[in-house]
Amino acid sequence: MFIRRLELWLAATNTYVVAREAGGPAVVIDAPPDCLDPLTGLMAAHDLTPTALLLTHGHVDHLGGAGNFTARTGVTAYLHPDDDYLARRPEDQLRILMGTVPPGDYRPPETYRHLSDGMPLPLAGLRLEVLATPGHTPGHCCFYSSEEAILFSGDQLFAGSIGRTDLPGGDYETLMTSMKEKVLPLDDEVTVMPGHGPSTTVGRERCSNPFLVGV
Ligand SMILES: [Zn+2]
Ligand SMILES: [Zn+2]
Predict the structure, then answer these.
(1) Ligand nearest to the CA of 61
(2) Which of 12, 110, 120, 185 is deepest in the core (most CB within 10 A)?
(3) DSSP state letter for 21
(4) d(Cα 9, Cα 65) in Å, to the nearest integer?
(5) Which has the closest alpha carbon to 86: 174, 167, 7, 152?
(6) Is the Cβ–Cβ distance between 165 and 135 less than 8 Å?
(7) Ligand 1 centroid to 126 CA: how many Å?
């Protein structure tokens, strides 16, 4: 599997370009503000053609570049409908997070396909599956490849931490229920590629993540 990570924007958000191999179709996971040029540059360098944009959730640091990216590339965006309300209010989110709206283009995509739990995503020759993991936001989703043993975990799980639940729509109990029902049942060997920071594995987090020990 071809996977490249770019860390973008003020929140150092990870965006991933995923394909079977260079020189073919690719899927993009999350679109931080100002992601268009870095993403299209990376894909051009590896002769990749974007076919879909998968959004883990509606926070502006993951979705703020999605409208511009989809308008310019023509790809379809995918988001869980429970985060529609967040996607439509990027400026409100920025005011809550930063107290201001930095100049930029944060508009959401005009249309989405709606993600749902267990939905298969046969895109770009990949076999990703949607794991709905509410808690960080109501519509948060992870994307899982059992074939490759990789979980794109968004802001559900990080190396050594978990997603914050103090923002509007967040709920700690719900996030931990998602962890128990969707993430922790995965094998220890599964690689976790989070929405911020370095990759890890389910096994490493099970043993050493202070939020998960004893869960
Ligand atoms: Zn988030
Ligand atoms: Zn984030």
Answers:
(1) 2
(2) 12
(3) S
(4) 10
(5) 167
(6) yes
(7) 25
Amino acid type, 62: H
- Residue 188 CA, ligand 2 centroid: distance in Å: 24
Ligand 1 centroid from CA 163, angstroms? 7
φ/ψ of 29, rounded to 5, equals -110, 115
Q: What is the CA(32)–ligand 2 centre distance, in A? A: 9
The residue ranges of the chain whose pLDDT is under 70 are: none
The phi, psi pair for 84, rounded to 5°, reads: -55, -45
* Contact between residue 32 and residue 13 where contact means Cβ atoms under 8 Å apart: yes
H or E segment and range at residue 189: none
Asked whether the beta carbons of 36 and 51 are under 8 A apart, the reply is no
The three-state secondary structure class of 54 is: strand
Task: State which amino acid sits at residue 75.
Answer: V
**Residues 82-105 pLDDT 10s:** 999 999 999 999 999 899 999 999
Ligand nearest to C-alpha 10: 2
* Distance from residue 124's CA to the centre of ligand 1 (Å): 26
